[in-house]
Write a structure and sequence with these properties.
Layout (H helix, E strand, L loop, with lengths): L17 E2 L2 E2 L2 H8 L5 E5 L14 E5 L7 H11 L4 E4 L9 H14 L3 E6 L2 E10 H13 L5 H7 L2 E4 L1 H7 L12 H6 L4
Parallel strand pairs: 3-4, 6-8
Antiparallel strand pairs: 1-2, 5-7, 6-7
Helix pairs in contact: 2-4
Length: 193
């Protein structure tokens, strides 16, 4: 999970902002733990480790350099990932839906893709995504070496499968998987349990 940003648009640490009585960051961690044995949370080099839900199997990884973009954070997370597949999400995505993430994993396994993303209104969303750990890490290293830092750069460089919108939206009719919190007003619009 990528949680190393500076929350510039939010104006304060958005991952500590409470939604339904919990810090924002706890929500995607708990959703991922519904389908993963362990969650790797990538934080910036100078950021204090945030609190985690009691008993959550979480490991922290650190970006090697601040403000180097999400691809650098992904590299840090993949470096310590110990699974064939990794679900990549933002720490500001409070309502990831496990059936959608399972469908993405299925699509990756069945197609042999390196990455799987979701179609959204004719566009492809970079998060959440599912990546095959080893080939994704190799591609990320090459991209970083050439100065590339965006997740979309990775998705353009490797075999990427897009789960069509009707397929994943049938598993998530409220389209909650794509909700992210960028500004304070987004907290008020966030789905509630």
């Amino acid at each position: 999970m990528l949680a190393g940003g500076r929350s510039r648009r939010f104006g304060r640490d958005k991952l500590a902002e409470e939604i339904d009585g919990r810090p924002l960051l706890h929500h995607p961690v708990l959703r991922l733990l519904d389908i993963c044995d362990r969650v790797v949370v990538v934080i910036g080099p100078q950021i204090e480790e945030p609190s985690m839900p009691a008993g959550a199997s979480v490991t922290f990884a650190r970006d090697s350099t601040a403000d180097e973009g999400p691809l650098r954070g992904l590299a840090a997370g993949l470096e310590i990932a110990d699974a064939t597949w990794a679900i990549v999400a933002g720490g500001d995505m409070p309502d990831l839906q496990p059936p959608v993430l399972r469908e993405m994993l299925r699509a990756g396994r069945e197609t042999g893709a390196v990455a799987v993303i979701l179609s959204d209104g004719g566009d492809a969303r970079p998060l959440p995504c599912v990546v095959r750990t080893e080939p994704a890490a190799d591609a990320v290293a090459v991209l970083l070496g050439s100065g590339r830092r965006r997740l979309r750069d990775l998705l353009s460089a490797v075999r990427t499968v897009v789960v069509d919108e009707p397929s994943w939206a049938a598993l998530d009719p409220g389209r909650r998987t794509l909700v992210d919190i960028d500004e304070p007003a987004d907290v008020e619009r966030a789905p509630r349990r």
